[in-house]
Amino acid sequence: MSVIPKLLTVALLTCLSLAAHGEKLRIVTEPWAPYVYDDNGAMRGLDYETTVIVFQRLGVDVEWQFLPWKRCLAMLEQGHADGALDIFHSHDRDALLLYPSEPLSEVEFVLFYANERPYPAQTLDDLRGRTVGTSPGYLYGTEFTDSSLFTREPAPSHEANFGKLLLGRIDLLITDSRVGQHVIKQLGMEDKVSQAPLVVSRQQQFLAVRRGAGMDLLVQRFAAELKRFKQEPAYTALSAKYGGLHAKNAAITAPERTVEQQESSAR
């Protein structure tokens, strides 16, 4: 038997083993709209729905659970979860987790400003003397985090940051482009807030699974099927539904920096 059929056979046996024991792949994640979130008791989101479709094609049953991000990581470390959705790749976790070669999506951390007080920043130098709203547990790249040009002011939620922005308590806020647009729509702020052209940093999001028997082959099959699905009109429609693809060529990007590796409790 050649190598490829052998790999497919082992991967299939892994899936059949889970089914035979009545087991499901236990995936944990934190709500992170529009990538994954709870909509009146129904799970939705670009990365969630993409992952569901891929696993359905692979014949793998999944049990989902929403938890605070720090608890998601703890469950992975303790073996109480098999994988996590929308996790950044950290080399610190390579001994514990396997990452598919194909990411689910890419986060773009950008800036938003109130239209009444426009600050269309094109470089971090344009933030000199300003106050930028941030969210706990998110790291936006070394250049942004270590800069002394501006003040960083945390808020308990993305919604709180947008409220502070309209009240003039902060000059700008930083969050993922899709997340920001989703919050703006949810809060009815389409005519009150705009996105600055600067992309502070980018980071890919993955479905990662704990290392174990057959998991390396499952990750390979997941990556291959995910890559195929992304070429289909169904994925294009799904992406458009949740804010479309990031317009990389239309944005100004700060020098590339890693977003997560600096802190184990970050995504």
TrEMBL record:
Keyword RNA-binding: no
SMART domains in alphabetical order: PBPb
Segment forming the signal sequence: 1-22
Domain Solute-binding protein family 3/N-terminal: residue ranges: 24-246
Domain of life: Bacteria
Keyword field contains Methyltransferase: no
Database matches in InterPro entries: Solute-binding_3/MltF_N
Keywords tagged on the record: Signal
Family under the similarity heading: Belongs to the bacterial solute-binding protein 3 family.
Protein name, entry field: Putative amino-acid-binding protein YxeM
Species, as recorded: Pseudomonas extremaustralis
Gene name tied to this protein: yxeM
